[in-house]
């Protein structure tokens, strides 16, 4: 009986210690992301196939990931992309997020794949 109690106590202690250690190692764990991307040349809204000298990446994130990004970009911008009731827009640098009740959260960002520089990934 004493041996079983000692083993149980030890197991509980090790589980608690391992859990605390895991939290310390991964304080901001990776999460799944729902996204689509386009590799293109030209300008947003008039994308062309990528060329040897011009390749840009546009990424659209939706779902919970977009909501998490949106929530981190406060405050709301004064400008919106449409007249739809309830639309909200937030942006910082080349990251733009919107919330539209009918479509949910969407975020856009992009990169020039030839230079590695951040560029806009979406437009109204």
From TrEMBL:
Q: Which UniProt keywords apply?
A: Signal
Question: Which residues does UniProt assign to the signal peptide?
Answer: 1-20
Report if keyword Signal is assigned.
yes
Name-wise, this protein is DUF3617 family protein
> What species does this protein belong to?
Massilia aerilata
């Amino acid at each position: 009986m004493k041996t079983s109690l000692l083993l149980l106590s030890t197991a509980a202690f090790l589980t608690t210690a391992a859990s605390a250690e895991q939290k310390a190692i991964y304080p901001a764990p990776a999460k799944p992301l729902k996204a689509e991307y386009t590799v293109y040349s030209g300008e947003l809204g008039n994308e062309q196939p990528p060329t040897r000298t011009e390749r840009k990446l546009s990424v659209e994130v939706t779902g919970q990931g977009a909501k998490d990004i949106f929530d981190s970009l406060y405050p709301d911008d004064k400008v919106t992309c449409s007249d739809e009731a309830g639309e909200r827009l937030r942006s910082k640098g080349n990251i733009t997020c919107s919330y539209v009740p009918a479509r949910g959260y969407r975020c856009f960002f992009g990169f020039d794949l030839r230079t590695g520089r951040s560029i806009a990934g979406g437009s109204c």
